Every structure is written in C-alpha cells, then in structure tokens.
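User: Sequence recovery, please. Input:
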C-alpha cells in the first residue's frame, strides 16, 4: 500500500527496471535532489516540488502522467546537457536546450497530460534554443523566416518510428495521450458546428 506523499529524496531510478511505476495522484512527491538514470544518462528533477500521478520507466525513455490540476508540475534537467525529445506539446512550460543548460518542464492544466520523455546522447551545443512558453523574438539581419509547421501531438505519436517498439505500458500511455488530445479537438468542432447552425438560422437558410 502506497504511503501518502511518499518522499523520494536522492532516489536513483534505473531504466533497467522496465515497468517501474508509481500510481495514484499526488502519491509521489519528487524533491530537487532526485536523480533519474535513463539509459545511462543522468537526469535531475528541478523545482521546489514535482508532484505527479505516475512515472513509468522504459528501456530508453520514461513516461510522466500529470493529473488535470494546476498544482501538478514536473521539471527535469540534464547536467551533461543531453537533449530531450518529447511527444507532448500540451502543458509544456519549459524547453531549453543550449550551451549552458538542458531543461524540460510541464504544468498540467484542466486535462491530464501524459508525456513520454526520451533523453538523447546528443548534447545541446547551440548558443541559444529556448522554446519556453510565450512568444519569443528572433535576431539577425534580413527578413525573418516562417517557422515550419508542427504536426499535432497525435500525428507525431502515430507516425513515430518508435511507436512499434513501445512496451504495452508505454502504448497504453500513448493511447491515453491521443484520447486527451482528441477531446478538445472534438469540442472545438462542436462549437464551430453550433455557430454555423446559428448563423444559418439567423439568415433564414436553415
């Protein structure tokens, strides 16, 4: 039976233990000195507290589930400046990868956020690459370039070359992430349809 607010201080979680998971919202509280060893890559949890619903550890990545609650946050850094790959943009609050730091952070909002994080042996070497929330500015002469369009989290996951190699637990987490991404899209579609019906009624074409 899990102890409420189990404090994991200085715990080293090895990814060589596949399927390791902590469940139940707010049952796990990671402190700033928590260390994750992922595929031989050292990662540190940062922030005053990282309260999560669950962590599932795989062979090359780990999955973090944040309950739909503003108090649920998770932030991780790579002291050796390893790059982070993530399948989830929803809830992303911090993503910094440059010559001085590598940091990835999420804050859950009204819906559950499931994130699959894969640390890479590739190091952050660019002088600046901060994709934290909010609009950024670009410098340099000449005209600005239009950033490439990003695929939706659902498209990114389904087309991922790693999807077929996921463990059943990781696939289940991915399915939950797809469901969470589809719900707001369906809700937006319903709103648009209702607006169109109202416009047709107002014009007498309904």
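Assistant: Recovered sequence (206 residues):
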């Amino acid at each position: 039976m899990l102890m409420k607010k189990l404090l994991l201080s200085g715990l080293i979680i090895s990814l060589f233990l596949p399927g390791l998971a902590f469940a139940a919202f707010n049952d796990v509280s990671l402190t700033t000195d928590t260390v994750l060893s992922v595929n031989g890559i050292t990662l540190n949890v940062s922030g005053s507290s990282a309260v999560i619903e669950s962590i599932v550890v795989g062979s090359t990545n780990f999955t973090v589930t944040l309950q739909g609650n503003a108090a649920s946050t998770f932030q991780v850094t790579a002291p050796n400046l390893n790059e982070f790959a993530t399948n989830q943009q929803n809830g992303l609050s911090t993503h910094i990868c440059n010559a001085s730091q590598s940091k990835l952070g999420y804050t859950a909002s009204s819906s559950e956020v499931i994130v699959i994080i894969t640390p890479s042996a590739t190091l952050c070497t660019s002088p600046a690459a901060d994709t934290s929330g909010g609009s950024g500015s670009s410098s340099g002469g000449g005209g600005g370039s239009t950033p490439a369009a990003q695929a939706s989290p659902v498209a990114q996951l389904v087309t991922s070359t790693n999807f077929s190699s996921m463990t059943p637990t990781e696939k289940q987490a991915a399915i939950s992430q797809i469901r969470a991404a589809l719900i707001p899209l369906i809700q937006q579609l319903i709103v648009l349809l209702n607006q169109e019906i109202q416009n047709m009624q107002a014009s007498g074409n309904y």
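The longest strand covers residues 113-123.
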